[in-house]
Design brief:
Elements (H helix, E strand, L loop, with lengths): L5 E2 L12 E2 L3 E5 L9 E4 L2 E2 L8 E4 L4 E3 L4 E4 L9 E7 L4 E9 L4 H9 L14 E3 L2 E4 L8 E8 L6 E7 L10 E3 L5 E4 L10 E10 L4 E13 L13 E6 L7 E4 L16 E8 L8 E3 L5 E4 L15 E9 L9 E11 L7 E2 L3 E7 L4 E6 L1 E2 L11 E7 L6 E5 L6 E5 L10 E10 L14 E9 L6 E2 L4 E6 L7 E4 L2 E2 L9 E7 L5 E3 L5 E4 L14 E10 L6 E11 L7 E3 L2 E5 L6 E8 L11 E4 L9 E5 L4 E6 L6 E10 L7 E14 L2 E3 L8 E2 H14 L2
Parallel strand pairs: 3-10, 12-18, 19-25, 27-34, 36-43, 45-51, 50-53
Antiparallel strand pairs: 1-3, 2-5, 4-8, 6-9, 7-8, 9-10, 11-13, 13-16, 14-17, 15-16, 17-18, 20-23, 21-24, 22-23, 24-25, 26-29, 28-32, 30-33, 31-32, 33-34, 35-38, 37-41, 39-42, 40-41, 42-43, 44-46, 46-49, 47-50, 48-49, 50-51, 51-52
Length: 704
């Protein structure tokens, strides 16, 4: 067994003392095994002030670094992973070195992949004038700057030529990070690098003459930033809240915690391990939960009996979770978050009445809540495992009672929904059952305490008399004689055990047509019943009566009487319109269409008969023609002079016996010029056939 070959990739050497590891990254070939106490490699650390109180820590506990920097195995080790990390700390400085372990058959390929050189390893595939070896630079280097990090070589010499460097980090943003010595090809970094901001730089280097003309190149120069553990793990997805059902089996997964580390995910710098730092509260066990150190899954570790929500100090647990990088080693950086775990309730407690029997008293005839039934339930009040559902399972054949849940108190509100009658039953006994909205778990059942009895006492009250029937209906002709009997009302007292008397009175009689005998309830008329009255609606007249018992205080009942009035032909027909106008030179002598109406009902209305009274004088001036059952037309037989004329007309209905209305149509004959009618002077020329007849009659009488 030969010591592993050390592949040195860092090309830069500091001329001055720089505190820390003089070489920070190593690549070694993995042996068959690391042998106990056999040298692996030597790490050179110098804090530039004597290395006082120097101490080394290795990420793998199977290795150690001695004070002289020798890395050795503490025992024979076959598997160590892909990398080792060595942390050094003295009184004046601290630093980190990384050792990557490669399989023998993958050494060259792994380097190519890690450095992303793609064949540009400093060994040219063809003859080139410029050799640009990849450069590795640890992030977070301390001043002073600029710091020499590598060198570009020209095989044909550098006399009379200059090196020129370009690309992102030189002449492109972020500008000025790297620069090259134009004369000898030394590459320097001017500031601290941050791998999490930019991990790789791809630059180009070329050789130009003194006039700036390119002679050789450009050739790619790769610069890789070596990660250091400079980022703490962070929990970004909070708040973290998990739920677990009470009584869950040991090992039940509650939730997963996931932290993020901005360092290189391929190194232990971002290899996280999880741990529970604190649990609140600590009862019934200080270790209620366990977190998988690699996955971050939080699981229960107590028995189902201890995971009992109703016996816990609090159903909410808060865990302080720590995430540590470097695979959980002491040198790792940490981040914390709080995980809140809620113990969810399941319906493992049946509701129970606080007592077996409840009492209630209610007056007859009254509805509403009469008693609140109280229950206890140890389940979570915010869930259906606590909310109660009540039902009446016996004693409610008439559906006079209902029970509902008060959502605030969970009490059962027992109500009377149909008025109770003391005379029928003075006592009621109900059997009430309570259940939960959610079903009970299989091994729990409702017991005797989930039912209760309610004893209800009905109190007697003085109830008002009741009319039979109500409403009362009767049919009468209108215009029956005053004093006629309409009907006799009948009211009885529900309080059969009190033997009370009843007296009657009129409560509402809109037209004032009725009276009632206070003793026997006979209703009679005090006025003529008129079907055409505005107090009659759809031929029905409505009045209200009271029946008053002799209780103390007296109780009153109200009865309604509907009188349907039959029509009698007691209204003469009316004529419309009563005024008409016509031009004295009109060609159309059809003066007006008359209509007739009657307040009575059929058959005491149309068809109507229209007639003209006898016309005086040698000539007839007008006539009337019937158009239909309700209308007729007045026609002039010749043009008349401008004047007012009263035309006597009679209209007769079809009743038995028929009624006739003798009336007059006033006709104005006007002067019409240019579509304008002038009737202003007709009053002075007024001629009334009626007055002419009266004058002739007067002269005739005087002659005798």
């Amino acid at each position: 067994f030969f010591p592993p070959q050390v592949l040195l990739l860092a090309c830069a050497e500091d001329l001055e003392c720089v505190p820390g590891f003089q070489q920070k990254v190593f690549y070694i070939e993995k042996p068959f095994q690391f042998t106990e106490d056999r040298l692996v490699l030597n790490l050179k650390f110098d804090d530039c002030q004597g290395n006082n109180k120097l101490n080394f820590e290795v990420s793998n506990p199977d290795f150690r670094v001695e004070l002289d920097g020798n890395l050795v195995a503490l025992k024979n080790v076959s598997e160590v992973g892909r990398a080792l990390f060595v942390h050094a700390r003295s009184e004046h400085a601290e630093d980190m070195a990384e050792i990557f372990i490669l399989e023998a058959n993958e050494k060259r390929g792994a380097l190519k992949e890690i450095l992303k050189l793609e064949g540009n390893l400093g060994i040219p595939r063809q003859k080139r004038a410029i050799l640009a070896t990849p450069i590795l630079i640890p992030e977070n280097q301390r001043p002073p700057f600029p710091r020499l990090v590598g060198k570009v070589i020209r095989s044909e010499g550098t006399e009379g030529v200059k090196f020129r460097l370009s690309g992102k980090g030189v002449d492109q943003d972020p500008k000025g990070i790297f620069r090259i010595n134009e004369m000898n090809g030394d590459v320097s970094v001017t500031r601290t690098l941050d791998r999490e901001a930019i991990a790789n730089y791809e630059l180009e280097v070329e050789v130009v003459d003194m006039n700036g003309k390119t002679i050789d190149g450009p050739v790619r120069l790769d610069i890789s930033v070596i990660d250091q553990n400079d980022n703490r793990p962070m929990f970004k997805e909070g708040p973290y809240v998990g739920h677990v059902m009470e009584g869950s089996a040991t090992g039940t997964t509650v939730m997963r915690m996931a932290a993020f580390d901005a360092d290189d995910a391929s190194t232990d710098n971002a290899l996280l391990r999880y741990n529970i730092l604190k649990q609140t509260p600590t009862k019934p066990s200080p270790n209620m939960f366990y977190i998988d150190p690699e996955k971050g899954d939080i699981v229960t570790v107590v028995s189902p009996a201890l995971l009992d929500r109703e016996t816990m100090e609090s159903p909410k647990y808060e865990l302080v979770i720590e995430a540590k990088d470097m695979g959980g080693m002491d040198v790792g950086l940490t981040g914390t978050a709080t995980a809140t775990i809620l113990i969810d309730d399941k319906n493992d407690h049946a509701p129970e009445f606080t007592k077996k029997e409840f009492q209630a008293t209610v007056k007859e005839g009254v509805t509403g809540v009469i008693v609140n039934l109280t229950v206890g339930d140890r389940d979570d009040p915010a869930t259906g495992a606590w909310r109660a559902v009540y039902s009446i399972i016996n004693g409610n054949p008439g559906q006079s009672f209902e029970i509902h849940t008060n959502p605030q108190t969970n009490e059962g509100m027992l109500s009377v929904v149909k008025p109770l009658d003391y005379e029928i039953s003075a006592f009621h006994t109900l059997l009430i059952k309570v259940e939960n909205e959610d079903p009970l778990i299989p091994d729990i059942a409702y017991g005797p305490s989930s039912t209760a009895t309610v004893q209800i006492t009905v109190e007697d009250v003085n109830e008002g008399p009741v009319f039979h029937p109500n409403p009362m209906t009767v049919t009468k002709q209108e215009n029956i004689p005053i004093g006629s009997v309409v009907l006799t009302v009948n009211a009885t007292d529900p309080d059969t055990l009190q033997h009370q008397t009843i007296r009657y009175s009129v409560y509402k009689d809109p037209a004032g047509w009725l009276e009632i005998n206070p003793t026997n309830g006979t209703v009679g008329t005090t006025a003529v019943l008129d079907r055409e009255s505005p107090f009659v609606q759809n031929n029905v007249y409505t009045a209200l009566f009271l029946a008053i018992d002799s209780g103390n205080p007296p109780a009153t009942g109200t009865g309604t009487l509907h009188i349907t009035l039959e029509d009698v032909n007691d209204n003469v027909p009316s004529l419309y319109p009563t005024l008409a106008k016509v031009c004295d030179d009109a060609k159309d002598l059809r003066v007006v269409v008359l209509g007739a109406s009657d307040k009575d009902l059929h058959p005491n209305t149309d068809p109507f008969k229209f007639e003209l009274s006898k016309q005086s004088g040698p000539e007839k001036l007008w006539r009337i023609n019937r158009l239909n059952n309700t209308h007729a037309q007045v026609i002039l037989l010749q043009n008349l002079k401008k004047a007012n004329y009263n035309i006597p007309i009679s209209v007769t209905d079809s009743g038995k016996p028929p009624l006739t209305n003798n009336t007059e149509l006033r006709l104005q004959v006007c002067t019409c010029k240019k579509s304008k009618m002038d009737c202003s002077a007709t009053d002075a020329l007024h001629i009334s056939l009626t007055l002419i007849l009266l004058s002739l009659l007067s002269l005739f009488c005087k002659s005798f």
